[in-house]
Amino acid sequence: QVQLVESGGGLVQAGGSLRLSCTVSGQIFSTYAMGWFRQAPGKEREFVAAINWSGGTTKYTDSVEGRFTISRDKAKNTVYLQMNSLKPEDTAVYYCAADRKYSSQIFITDRGYDYWGQGTQVTVSS
Q: b or e along 76-112 (b: 16 or more beta carbons within 10 Å of the residue's beta carbon)?
């Protein structure tokens, strides 16, 4: 059984930074593409960032490009989302997701992912 556990959320002032972590257990993490999504109150869940299984390719939504960085540590079965220059509009529950298809493609919709974490709250105050 695959489990994804997020951590690192919290309350931060605008302009600050947070690093989210997502640890995967139960399967071969090294073959999974990983993604981060977020859902703000009253809004649909949206794609934030993703990284392919090798770590060589990343993709970001336009609103976080240049501020957020996704990375992975295969030795720790963990994917990270470093978030800098945070804005109030980044406030949301952030979800980690895993794609087990072992392909070169990175998916930016939630239908492309097979496993999900429970989410971690990020709140950015103005």
A: ebbbbbebeebeeebbbbbbbbbbeeeeeebbbebeb
